[in-house]
Sequence to fold (283 residues):
Amino acid sequence: MSTSAEALPCQAGPMVPASFSLIAKRRETADTWTLELQGPAGEPLAFAPGQFTMLSAFGAGEVPISISGDPTCAGPLVHTVRSVGLATKAICEADPGELLGVRGPFGRPWPVGELTGADVLVVAGGIGLAPLRPAILALLASRERYGRLVLLYGGRSPEQLLYAADLHDWTERGLEVQVTVDSAGPEWLGPVGVVPRLVQRASLDPAGTVALLCGPEVMMRFTVSALAQVGVRGERVYVSMERNMQCGIGHCGHCQLGPTLICRDGPVYRWSELERWLAIREL
Ligand SMILES: Cc1cc2nc3c(=O)[nH]c(=O)nc-3n(C[C@H](O)[C@H](O)[C@H](O)COP(=O)(O)OP(=O)(O)OC[C@H]3O[C@@H](n4cnc5c(N)ncnc54)[C@H](O)[C@@H]3O)c2cc1C
Ligand code: FES
Fold:
């Protein structure tokens, strides 16, 4: 796993951003863009699925953003960013040719290398599909190593769904894809309702399934409960956690959750590692 500045030789240290050039951007939804970035010498940034960078728009701020590109082929650094505030708005409004700051990659990745032989259930809510996209691409690149590969994906509405072309392509490559939305007009022919409701219908083998979850915390909590009801235990469930981050490297304490620092020990955790700390109300 690569979690230090060693991964990016152009960096002077883990707190010093490298300047990456925005080479392409694609609108995913009304407020979400996928950006392709190239490093100073054009070299690819090696990363593991689930890792993030600290991405900055100069003068606006720096925020943690998961890498959403393909870890199996060298190429530009890819991020999918939802504009929710000052920094993410400036990042989404950057034009091709502009420079953005990048530190990282940081964090503990999804345990993709440990899943050989398992059925893998991926459950994503909203922008939570972005951190899971590299894991899905890595799983599909070695499709024969796994049992069933299932994606349950929930969005607020059909217009809010990410990666429409990918969802089609992944289905062709052997991923069972189920998409649900919170609300939709009559043109939507799929399920309507929250994503944990799809768990019951997925006919999982509890002893052989490992689940990877990313989305709003409430969605992950309900999905964990739904998984427990069909017999998938917390030891077999991994979640990616979000908290406010400043340094990204375990120095400042902003991202503390119980005894762990999410930037350093996460963002990916086994649910059973975290359960007791999430039960404590944060101030
Ligand atoms: C490990 C990690 C990976 C992440 N990966 C991604 C990613 O791939 N793509 C992505 O778009 N975001 C991702 N995020 C979330 C992203 O870091 C935040 O949206 C960002 O920090 C907001 O900063 P801002 O300055 O734009 O907004 P702020 O000015 O800090 O906040 C503006 C408003 O947005 C609200 N807000 C802040 N964060 C969020 C949030 N996460 N969701 C909804 N509302 C929020 C605030 O409560 C506030 O009301 C990730 C976060 C972490 C910790
Ligand atoms: S962001 Fe500083 S310790 Fe995690």
Notes: The longest helix spans residues 129-141. Residues 1-10 have pLDDT under 50 and may be disordered.
